[in-house]
Amino acid sequence: MTEIRHLPAAPTQVRSLASGTAIDAHRHDDHQVAYAARGVLAITTDKGSWVAPATRAVWIPAGTAHAHQAHGDLELHLVGLPAIENPLRLNEPGVLAVGPLLRELIRAYTGRPREDTPERRRLRAVLLDQLRASPQEPLHLPTPEDPRLRELCEILSADPADNRTLAALGARVGASDRTLARLCKADLGMTFPQWRTQLRLYRALVLLADNTPVTAVAHACGWSSTSAFIDVFRRAFGHTPGAHYDR
Fold it and tell me: For residue 129, what are the domain limits?
């Protein structure tokens, strides 16, 4: 990312963003929690991308250069926290599970009024407690550094339904399947099947946010059947793909 803006404070606010809207790369001196109550939010850094539907939030540490992308009409809630206050003890971006209580706390805290009252301080304390208790979710698409692995990832990003084996893809990028498998673990921190599943889930969230039918999403993302897609999606997000149409 180039021409990164520096914004001293991470705002606490609610924003409505139309589908496809992007917020250019910037960084804050404060930590930030980004939550999409409606739509799907993607956060991109030089380390990769994190994607979050309405059951997840993205933790963005202070000083991290990042860009936002809206998929579907986005209701974006942003919670700024001072750099000295890190309830998650995370120095890298991450995705957090958002249950009903945390969802309502975020909505209440980002709503008006925002004066520093005893009631608001109590609300903040409970919000921080819930953030500390929120489990982290592996919804990260890391950016590879090795040029062969980067080319492979670009091929599959262009067509997640590409079902070629690692050996066949290796022939395209000039590396053996054993070399690519080793690079995946070293460069991406996961196996090739795990990365491909993450990519497909990422693309599925984007398509669902645009109201694409579930069967079409399953086909476009490379699942052998709609039922197989629904099963993987439910295990990853805790609900079926169809639940996105009710948000």
Answer: 5-140
| Cα gap 211→120, rounded to integer Å | 37
d(CA 237, CA 97): 9
**Mean pLDDT computed over every residue of the chain:** 89
Give the pLDDT confidence of 3-42 residue by residue, as tens digits: 688 877 888 999 999 988 999 999 999 999 999 999 889 9
> What distance in Å separates the CA atoms of residue 204 and residue 221, rounded to the nearest whole number?
7
- pTM beyond cutoff 0.85: no
Q: Could you tell me how far CA 26 lies from the centroid of its own chain?
A: 17
Query: 220 with 233, same domain?
Result: yes
157 and 225 within one domain: yes
Which residues lie across from 15 on neighbouring strands? 76
Checking if the pLDDT of 189 tops 60, the result is yes
Amino acid in position 136: Q
Q: Indicate the SS3 state at residue 154.
A: helix
Distance CA 199, CA 196 (A): 5
The CATH number linked to 130 is: 2.60.120.810
